[in-house]
Amino acid sequence: MENRRCLFCTVPISVTHLGIDACRACAAFFKRTVIAGRRYPCRRGDKKCVIRKHEKFMCRSCRYDRCIELEMTYMLPPKKKPRKNREVKVDAEMIPSTSSSASSMTPATPMTYSLPTKRRSRMTKDESTNLELTSTSCLASDSLLDRTETEYKSWCERRLVQEMGYIAKHNLQPFDHPTEKFYITHFTSYYDLFRIAMKEAFPLLQNVFHDFKKLPHRFQVTLFKNYINKFSKIECIYYTKKHFKNRNTMLMASLMTCMEKQNVHDWLIDTNQYNRKEAFRTTCKGFMDEYDYLFGTMTQMDEITDREFYALSVLSYCDIDTSLHVSEEIVKNAQATRGKVFEELQEYYRTELKLHDFSHRLGNLMAMIQGASEAARLMNKEMQMYSTMFDIYSDDSFFREIFSE
After folding, report:
1. What is the C-alpha separation between 236 and 245, in angstroms, rounded?
2. pLDDT winner (highest mean) among 124-133, 143-152, 265-274
3. In degrees, to the nearest 5, what angle opens at C-alpha 182 toward C-alphas 273 and 286?
4. Considering only 37-41, 124-128, 155-159, 342-346, which range has the smallest mean pLDDT?
5. What are phi and psi of 5, to 5 degrees?
6. Which contacts (CB < 8 Å, 24+ apart) does range 277-281 have?
7. Which residues form the NR LBD domain (predicted)?
8. Closest Cα to residue 209, out of 290, 129, 137, 127?
9. pLDDT of res. 279
10. Which residue from 241, 164, 202, 198 is spatially nearest to 379, judged by alpha carbons?
11. Which residues lie closer than 8 Å to 113 by C-beta, 6 or more apart?
């Protein structure tokens, strides 16, 4: 058992995936490729690339061919019957932007965070009825993606003010970008800016999903955690693809900060405050390598439009894992919202993009959601490791609640 290795990239393994001796990363790569229906060009052109875990640029074409050669299989779930299309008004003119004027920004207020005040753990019969009526009404009467666009832009405006204040206060160094004003982030600043994003995310959920504010506290927290960790990864990929099309070594870390994925020394410039520095550095590097693989795969997917980006925000909320133990009513409402998004997307593809076959684009979005879900699970594991092994954030009630199991 100790000598078993992945048949594809040669890393040591202890369990099988997809019925074959494969590591989790290779199995996930194959699954995403099948779902998205992607085919890749060979990096060298001769179909003889070496597939090893620590290769800087692993050839996806040869990796996928190796999966097929060794008979790795993944069965796509059966397609649901198509739903009848509704009349939907689509407005895709407005586009989110990270550009802002530094002179108009004010210093950030102290970063505080609080989840909504606790309510009764069970909904009354009247609350349950009102929740169902409200959800049905909002699904039938207005554009969910238009509402998401409006609330997302408001969320960005609130974050930009605080990010600029933080950048000025902590003297983050500018990054040389040809068109945008970005700054270089590091370990401490990344998680401080992530707090800002999370603190300002609750109004978005409350205003986009009308049933959210009616839920008991415990369900609000569960759905918030399910959404924010996942969508933060999608947002990272969206802005990375938008601003660093030709630089696959860079990642957007927030609306105004970026980082070089492999430059761990700069990423960990604040390690003096941590115990067991070298062990911490090694652990952090390991997580960064896993993120690099996941994000690298996602950034190679097809470009998404702004309208699709707003759809991914909603789908992040609706993608509810069965392990979350939420009520059937919440799952039912999430499924109805998910159906609404797909209806609006289909109308958008037909009327705006003039597409007749958009199955590939929908598959691309679902692959993005899957990749973001894996990255979110990795982030939970990462934060729990920092808290237990290195005593980082262990006294932070915010992180304890958001990153707890």
Report:
1. 13
2. 143-152
3. 45
4. 124-128
5. -135, 155
6. 279/389, 279/390, 280/390
7. 143-405
8. 137
9. 77
10. 198
11. 195, 198, 199, 398
**For residue 260, what are the β-bridge partners?**
250
Picking from 90, 94, 67, 70, the residue whose alpha carbon sits closest to that of residue 151 is 94
Q: Distance between alpha carbon 383 and the CA centroid of its chain, in Å?
A: 16
Instruction: For residue 141, name the pLDDT band (cuts at 50, 70, 90).
Output: very low
- Computed over its alpha carbons, how large is the radius of gyration of the chain? 22
Contact at 8 Å (CB) between 170 and 189? yes
* CB of 254 closer than 8 Å to CB of 163: yes
What is the pTM assigned to this prediction?
0.64
Spatial CA neighbour of 53 closest among 292, 375, 368: 292
Contacts of 391 by beta carbon, 8 Å cutoff, 6+ apart: 275
Spell out the residues 6+ positions from residue 51 whose beta carbon is closer than 8 angstroms to its own.
Answer: 8, 9, 10, 58, 59, 62, 63, 66
What is the mean pLDDT of the segment spanning 145-157? 94
Please indicate whether residue 207 or residue 324 has the higher confidence score (pLDDT).
207
**Rounded (10°) angle between helices 217-243 and 187-199:** 120
